[in-house]
Amino acid sequence: MNVASGSGVKVLFIEDNPIHVGLVKTLLGESRAPIFQLQHAGSLQDGLKLLEAVPVDIILLDLTLPDSEDLDTFIRVRSFAPAIPIVIVTSLDDVKLAAKAVEAGAQDYLVKTQLSRTSLTRSLRYAIERTRVRDAEWDSPMFRLAQRQFLKAAQYMGLDDNIRQRLLFPQRTLVVTLPFRRDHYTEVETVFGYRVQHILTMGPTKGGIRYHQDVSLGEVSALAMWMSWKCALVHLPFGGAKGGVRIDPTGLTGHELQRLTRRFATEISPIIGPEKDIPAPDMGTNERVMAWIMDTYSQQVGYSVPAVVTGKPVVLGGARGRNEATGRGVVYLIEEAARHLKMNLSESTAVIQGFGNVGSHAALFLSDLGVKIIGVSDATTGIYNRNGLSMSSLLEYVGQNRFLEGYSEGDEITNQELLELECDILVPAALQNQITAENADRIKCRLLAEGANGPTTLEADEVLNEKGVFILPDILANAGGVTVSYFEWVQDTQNYMWSLDEVNQRLKRILQDAFQRTLNRAEKNNVDMRTAALMEGIERVAQAKLARGLFP
């Protein structure tokens, strides 16, 4: 439903205090666009009965009722009507409760003493519109997770509502359908491609391009949002962006991959450029793909533009160390966390989920520090050896066979079994939503370093934090890649190359600083590391938006 159309909005208010019912009725009665039609229930049970009998667009919910109290009230209503947006209206001015409520899925948390017609009606309109848009175009577990993480941090920060609403969705999205020829020249495939720019305030936008069969607008939007917080957290002059094509690249020949890439680059070329938006590799893409994008863009403008992408070959202006930067950054941060936790890495064990670019380099660098790697996995299988795995042997095998399946120097286990191995350090470096409420209690590590984007749900976060697991959240742990991409962009714009030692030293300093700021905020605000990292990034973005003002 589009609330801007003037049609009536059916609101169910579950509240036992007649004074508060009268207040809300008065405030909503003053609205003329849209018209709100209010129904009232005085208990949770009566509210659930009305939900069964009458169609409702949105629920206003008090948390303290005669037959239910606190967050349990919201959870019971949410379970009964999962598709209907819920706005909490309560007397409980509790930032931690508010954070938990939006984390659990509430669209907003309003305190009764602060209610006004504007705040109430706008909250209802935004809640309905967000739900409608999400269900129509943005429906993705990753995007829901990204928004919930943001809303939780925003509650702790007391973020201005005007800025909060502006940051929930990307500023610019481009959705394209593009054709490319198969090697059988008469066979043409049509696929969906995306480029999303979350924030245009901070400078040019920055983010990878992924080729995967599950790419969607919602997934790309989530990744762009996380990239905004990541860049802000490590103080890079970029907004967040992300792109992708919904296709399985493993089924393409090299020629088909090149034709697909060049067509996609042509489609997104109007909104990319060294001072607009700078793509980089991500899942399913690599430096060769970046070289094709650079060449296609350069052909269109008539001269070579190395700075249009990062993560390209060194011979074309790529930065030394970029290929291994994300995995190296994960290990730099593990070193910092180990110092904080007083862990001896040379006596520690590690498990790595995902043996692609990030996971394999993280495993290699951890091994170089004396950490015993007892388990690794990829899409085909997991390999476990309690006595430790040889990195040189593993890398040689994968180089020859592409996948871990068939590797003989360990026991084959599932990815799920691998995650639940007892170890000191666990590095999820594969896909999102790997650690959930279902398996979090069986995770047996001391330090969790997220090499992947969104591998841990918020419900799992709570379980892990209660267990005392120290979490290096994704926007901090895997920031090494975008940091060295920034170095590459700077070198390309200056026509000056840095040595590998210079790159690694600068990377380490930046990540150490980001870790310390995040840890300090976590301790100061008594929040977990993920929320602290988000607060660091979001605060910087909010300051930039306020500094630039609003045009016109």
TrEMBL record:
CDD domains: NAD_bind_1_Glu_DH (cd01076), REC (cd00156)
Response regulatory domain sequence ranges: 10-127
Gene Ontology BP terms: L-glutamate catabolic process; phosphorelay signal transduction system
SMART domains: ELFV_dehydrog (SM00839), REC (SM00448)
Modified residues (4-aspartylphosphate): D62
tRNA processing among keywords: no
Record-linked InterPro entries: Aminoacid_DH-like_N_sf, CheY-like_superfamily, Glu/Leu/Phe/Val/Trp_DH, Glu/Leu/Phe/Val/Trp_DH_C, Glu/Leu/Phe/Val/Trp_DH_dimer, Glu/Leu/Phe/Val_DH_AS, NAD(P)-bd_dom_sf, NAD_bind_Glu_DH
Alphabetized UniProt keyword annotations: Oxidoreductase, Phosphoprotein
Enzyme nomenclature, EC number: 1.4.1.3
Keyword Ribosomal protein: no
Superkingdom classification of source: Bacteria
A GO MF label: glutamate dehydrogenase (NAD+) activity
PROSITE patterns (alphabetical): GLFV_DEHYDROGENASE, RESPONSE_REGULATORY
Pfam family, one: ELFV_dehydrog
Gene3D superfamilies in UniProt: 3.40.50.2300, Leucine Dehydrogenase, chain A, domain 1, NAD(P)-binding Rossmann-like Domain
Similarity comment text for this entry: Belongs to the Glu/Leu/Phe/Val dehydrogenases family.
Record's protein name: Glutamate dehydrogenase
The species this protein was found in: Gimesia chilikensis
Name of the encoding gene: gdhA_2
